[in-house]
Design a protein that fits this description.
Aconitase, domain 3, Serine Threonine Protein Phosphatase 5, Tetratricopeptide repeat, iron, globular, 33 strands, 31 helices, Aconitate hydratase, metal ion binding, Acoase/IPM_deHydtase_lsu_aba, 7-stranded mixed β-sheet, alpha/beta, aconitate hydratase activity
Length: about 900
């Protein structure tokens, strides 16, 4: 059967699903299309022509290469297609965004036919996705006296690819759509359980919010054709949770505009808004698409006649509406005054959405074009011997004389690109910063590979120290979707230059370790910048930023990220942690004490600089990981010298294990990381460069002191599913002591796993089971307990130390890598399940609890439908707590009393923490 015949079969299958033909990325299929186009009598000629023009993916896909070569032949007159004139062929090449299209345009521009060369040059002057091979050709041709090459370079030197674009509209009409009340998780926009379809944009778009919401958005578009639909998080923040490009892609698909008439299902320029603005990582993703993100401030704190904030029965501030954005309101954004209007009435200042840099993203159709444009202009000016002068808005550079630097300011100044020597920058400055470590995870990786193809990248930037492609989000079930997607992803990323969890050639066993844990080990410098395709990319060394799949692609391709230096909040500790408390309780108490102290979340959008000092990186990661739920932009651990050295030695040993498994590549990336770790340890030991610390006179937005003395009970983050105020549900801000539940709340399932646990948690589990057996004669589970260690090295170490054998004794199921599950578990027995390392229930895309269950988990997400979906008669609940609380809850089948808890943990070595003696 021909590829085209198979494609026709697929088209028919997709029709049944209400889907269009899938965009083509296969060059062999495009070759068949071209053969059928050349045959003027072919029965499928018209459809083949349509697919070639409108349904072939651009960039560096093999399909793009075959299409671009054919268009070149048409331009040269070697092929004649009535429907594709040479002029139209040039137009099609101009929409193909680099890679082979630029290569062939350069062939034509530097060729002997002056007329064709001039046309090709005009198209090239509009392109920005050029790489070294392309710019080297231009530089060489210019040096050789080629006038066309010089003219192209002169255009690039003026950044005409940007300056000649139309400015954004002065007035943008929007029609409002309330997507939900309270914080809107990206799970609403791109559910984790639909991760398998993210690279199929049309199919994945069907999961946005709900079919009813999609119909309502479509109706608004039809009713107001001159307005853009603005999706709103009423009384909340838009886009909290995972940093999904797929979420913004879905919003753009339904409410944005098509990027190119010749590229299907790639839309840009969505408009999103929230009462409390947009979460930082989601706002970055909005910028990737040239979209607009508004901070509405349409609900404000209610005050009494004395100006005091009025509080409700829970002690929370009461809100009152400043203005209405109910669904169907037609509003106007004025991009000059930077105000939001209803008619002539000014509603809000939205200037934060229209900084000079964000406006440039909107004008260019997305942030990638600006990043590449800046590099291209610099290259052209340097090649022509011109002084460097940017056509883009100058980066904001903020420097306060006499003011010290926070930890994040120190890291950004150390890694800044394009900043004058000696220039010291403080928070708020816009900075291009070099990226040391990059992580791509498996449920967004296919999108990252698509982004890399779209920006015509073929190899990782040489300035990146190391990059890793994980397999953890699809680890628990090796089903047909995973079997189709993951090998394809690993092959692409391995070839691109990443260390991959799976070897495309099957030379080493698959490693499903949780990506954040791997990146935490690969980070071998406390002054590093890390970017990863998940919001929990928050290392306990360096500063790490969770990012969308596109920003990850950009970091891989360019070795850079661009952002303002964030403000910081300093967190320190005082007092003594009680013996029966676990460090996870300190993490929850930090959030609770901060909210009680400030009323508002001072962590939101800022870096939490936590002076944790004495905890090794594995344990400290529990804090930095949770900062995603605190809505912080990132977190930095300030460590003692000796503690950091120990953490780096552990990282070295784990990197060596990866090398021993055969995971290093031809460039010896992993070996290079060990060498860099050795160099960093030497710097610390010699006193030449001690562990990262802020300056004594650094300035913070706020300072939080966590009192360990008042943490007397285990703490639980509760989704508060029945709160009368919808906006208070699923926020991570409701932190309750265990006594709140009176030992009566039924627990249907327990989960120990995700990136929040470490080896110590597995040993706590082992010790508790032994403890309970001694106390009660036997261990009997009244609820299932699912355990998924985050990494294989933890399993190996537990086996070596005897703990795994003990766990196996109590387990009714133990994973087998030689025979992985090929279907998700739908029912659980009251027993212990030892699952394969990876994300498991925390991700929600494979394993899930039964609908309506109350789950007690160590994981990070309590969003609606993530770990557990609602039943018709009961809302699913995901309560988040420490490992000992989860264990005891499954033994009892309910939340324990404080007395039961204290007895169960007696003599057990919990994850302890004591602040540094001299902070």
């Amino acid at each position: 059967m021909s590829l085209y015949a198979s494609y026709l079969d697929e088209i028919e299958t997709r029709k049944i699903q209400g889907l269009s033909p899938k965009p083509i990325d296969d060059g062999a299929l495009v070759a068949e299309l071209i053969a059928q186009i050349k045959d003027t009598g072919h029965q499928h000629r018209a459809d083949s022509l349509n697919h070639l023009i409108y349904n072939t993916l651009p960039g560096t896909t093999s399909a793009a290469g075959v299409k671009a070569a054919f268009l070149k032949e048409i331009i040269l007159g070697k092929e004649v297609v009535a429907e594709i004139t040479p002029d139209f062929a040039f137009e099609l090449l101009s929409h193909m965004k680099g890679g082979p299209s630029v290569e062939y345009l350069l062939d034509l521009a530097l060729g002997d036919d002056a007329s064709i060369a001039a046309q090709a040059a005009d198209v090239l002057k509009t392109q920005v996705f050029l790489y070294d091979a392309d710019t080297d050709r231009l530089a060489a041709a210019h040096k050789g006296g080629n006038a066309v090459a010089t003219a192209i370079l002169e255009s690039y030197a003026k950044a005409e690819f940007f300056t000649k674009l139309p400015d954004i509209e002065e007035e943008i009409k929007v029609v409002t759509y309330i997507a939900g009340e309270g914080d809107i998780s990206t799970d609403l926009l791109s559910p984790g359980n639909q991760a398998h379809s993210r690279s199929d944009r049309e199919l994945h778009g069907k999961c946005l919010i709900s079919p009813e919401a999609q119909a309502e958005i479509t109706a608004l578009k039809e009713k107001y054709p001159d307005a853009r639909v603005m999706l709103i998080a009423e009384k909340g923040t838009m886009g909290v949770g995972s940093s999904r490009m797929s979420g913004v892609n879905n919003v753009a698909l339904w409410a944005g505009k098509q990027a190119s008439p010749y590229v299907p299902f790639v839309n840009i320029a969505p408009v999103v808004a929230g009462t409390n603005g947009i979460s930082p990582i989601f706002l970055t993703t909005v910028g990737v698409t040239g979209g607009i993100g508004l901070d509405l401030k349409n609900w404000v704190k209610k005050v009494d006649e004395n100006g005091e904030v009025v509080k409700d029965g829970y002690g929370d501030p009461m809100l009152e509406q400043a203005y209405s954005v109910e669904t169907g309101k037609v509003l106007t954004i004025n991009t000059k005054t930077k105000k939001l209007y209803e008619g002539d009435e000014e509603l809000a200042d939205v200037s934060s959405a229209f900084t000079a840099q964000k406006v440039e993203f909107m004008k260019a159709g997305g942030s990638y074009a600006v990043v590449f444009g800046k590099k291209l202009q610099t290259f052209a000016q340097t090649t022509l011997g011109q002084p460097l002068k940017s056509s883009y808005a100058p980066n904001r550079e903020i420097s306060h004389e006499g003011q010290g630097l926070t930890a994040v300011e120190k890291i950004f100044n150390r890694n800044a690109v394009g900043v004058a020597d000696g220039q010291v920058l403080h928070a708020g400055s816009d900075v291009r910063v070099g990226v040391n470590i990059v992580g791509s995870q498996d449920t967004t990786g296919l999108m990252t590979s698509q982004e890399l193809e779209a920006m015509a990248a073929t190899v990782i930037s040489p300035t990146v120290d190391g990059a890793y492609q994980s397999g953890c989000h699809t680890a628990s079930v090796w089903d047909k979707k995973a079997q189709t997607n993951i090998p394809k992803l690993m092959t692409f990323m391995n070839k691109f230059g990443l260390i991959t969890a799976r070897d495309p050639n099957d030379q080493y066993p698959a490693m499903t370790d949780v990506i954040h844990k791997v990146l935490n080990d690969l980070t071998i410098d406390d002054r590093a910048v890390i970017v990863g395709g998940d919001s929990h990319t928050r290392m306990s060394k360096g500063v790490a930023f969770g990012a969308d799949s596109g920003t990850v692609a950009l970091a891989l391709a360019t070795g850079e990220a661009t952002m303002p230096i964030p403000e910081s909040v300093k967190v320190t500790f005082k007092g003594t942690l009680k013996d029966h408390m676990d460090f996870r309780d300190v993490v929850h108490a930090t959030q609770a004490q901060m909210l009680k102290q400030f009323g508002d979340n001072v962590f939101q959008g800022r870096v939490i600089e936590v002076h944790i000092g004495t905890l090794l990186s594995d344990q400290a990661f529990t804090f930095t990981d949770w900062t995603a739920e605190m809505k912080a932009k990132a977190s930095i651990c300030i460590s003692e010298d000796e503690t950091l050295i120990q953490s780096l030695e552990i990282a070295k040993s784990r990197i060596q294990i990866m090398i021993d498994k055969g995971m290093d590549n031809a460039k010896g990336v992993l070996a290079g990381l060990i060498a860099k770790a050795d160099a960093r340890i030497a710097e610390i030991r010699s006193g030449e460069v001690p562990a990262l610390r802020p300056d004594a006179n650094a300035k913070y937005t706020a300072e939080v002191v966590v009192d360990l003395d008042i943490i007397t009970e285990p703490m639980i983050a509760d989704p508060d599913v029945n709160n009368n105020d919808i906006s208070k549900r699923y926020t991570h801000d409701t932190i309750r002591p265990i006594s709140y539940y009176g030992g009566e709340k039924k627990v249907d399932l327990g989960f120990i796993g995700s990136c929040m646990v470490h080896k110590g948690d597995m040993k706590i589990l082992s010790e508790m089971l032994q403890n309970l057996e001694k106390q009660h004669g036997k261990v009997e589970f009244k609820a299932p307990l699912v355990v998924a260690p985050p990494t294989y090295n933890i399993v190996d170490e537990l086996k070596a130390e005897g703990d795994w054998e003990l766990l196996s004794k109590y387990a009714g199921f133990e994973f087998d890598d030689t025979n992985p599950k090929n279907a998700a578990r739908t029912e659980y027995e009251n027993m212990l399940y030892l699952e394969r390392p990876g994300c498991n229930l925390c991700m929600g895309n494979q394993e899930k609890a039964a609908k309506g269950d109350t789950v007690m988990a160590t994981s990070t997400r309590l969003f609606q439908g993530r770990v557990v979906e609602d039943a018709s008669d009961k809302k699913g609940e995901s309560l988040l707590s420490s490992t000992p609380v989860v264990v005891l809850s499954t033994i009892l089948g309910r939340t324990p009393t404080i007395e039961e808890y204290t007895a169960a943990v007696e003599g057990i070595n919990l994850t302890k923490y004591a602040p540094p003696v001299a902070a």
